[in-house]
């Protein structure tokens, strides 16, 4: 394998790694999981005033669990279908001058 081919394959590998690293699903999923944990913890022991405001519904608990579920969905989706680096555009074959004249 020539040095040029080795360099190209190394750049392709780095490009694929960068595409997976900056996958938006990782960012969205991570944020939803973190905020879901925080809101779920806040909803585990609501005050009487909070329950009265929410008409007896443990809104923080249910919202936190929904955020956790959504965040985990994004992370599982990312794991099952990882991002691939975009394929390099293929060069068109060169035509001879006057070949289009029909």
UniProtKB/TrEMBL annotation:
UniProt entry tagged with the keyword Transmembrane helix: yes
Q: Which UniProt keywords apply?
A: Membrane, Transmembrane, Transmembrane helix
At the top level of its lineage, which domain of life is listed? Bacteria
What sections of the protein cross the membrane? 27-45, 57-77
- Its source organism is Streptomyces filamentosus (Streptomyces roseosporus)
Q: What is the designated name of this protein? A: Integral membrane protein
């Amino acid at each position: 394998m020539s040095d040029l081919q080795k360099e190209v394959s190394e750049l392709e590998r780095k490009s694929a790694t960068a595409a997976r690293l900056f996958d938006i699903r990782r960012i969205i999923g991570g944020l939803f999981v973190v905020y879901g944990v925080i809101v779920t913890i806040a909803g585990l022991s609501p005050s009487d005033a909070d329950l009265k405001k929410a008409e007896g519904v443990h809104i923080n608990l249910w919202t936190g669990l929904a955020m956790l579920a959504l965040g985990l969905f994004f992370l599982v989706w990312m794991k099952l279908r990882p991002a691939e680096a975009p394929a390099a555009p293929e060069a068109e074959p060169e035509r001879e001058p006057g070949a289009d004249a029909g």
